[in-house]
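Internal tracking record. Fields below are filled automatically when a chain is submitted to the structure queue. Please do not edit lines marked as system-generated. If the sequence contains nonstandard residues, flag them in the REMARKS field before resubmitting.
Queue: standard
Priority: normal
Entity type: single polypeptide chain
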Amino acid sequence: MPDNTQSTSTTNDGLLSARQSLPLLGDISANGRTGGMFKTICQRVRRCDKKNFEPTIELAVEIAREGREGRRIGTLFTFGDADNVMERSRPLILDPLAGHTEQARQIRDPNLRGTVKELAQLDGAFVVSDQGIVVSACRYLDATASDVTLPYGMASRHLAGASISQVTDAVAIVVSESSMVRVFDDGKLVAEIIPELWLMDHYNVQLTAPYQEEVVGDLAVLTAKA
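SYSTEM-GENERATED OUTPUT FOLLOWS
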């Protein structure tokens, strides 16, 4: 998957600044395709504005594959129902995206994506609206759903993602430090993305059968059947 984060410009304190306008990911003119890699996931979840949802997953996969500064990192995105997610979360630090225009916070903007990759090294979740606006970063998700059941080995970040997806209409996309990307909807694990096929030999699928498996390049996408 190409990295479209070149030409990212930041101010001295790490925030976005005015910069050159680049094509938005998800536009046919920008990437030359009409169909995304994650069509089956989009069909499986409750909320999917394909134009914005798929670039959010793509960004999560890029973070899983690339890490940052030579190390693997984990992070979490919520997509959709942003108002309810904000009500059920709180800032861990002063929001580094606060005060910037919606245009500058568009998830499909290649300039923003580099900033998100840097901020992913910090604790907390990114809240993304249905319109693809990154509403906030570094959020602690307060939601806890008592009846969420996760496979053994999934840590607090997965529990937070599963819980917020159950108590709101948001979809949670969790990047683990083991380089896996998992998608939760309505409190359930609905998809797993394995960013490097060689990892398949070292990885136990956590999805409950039946599920559909697709291979796109060196990327494996496993989606639970409805």
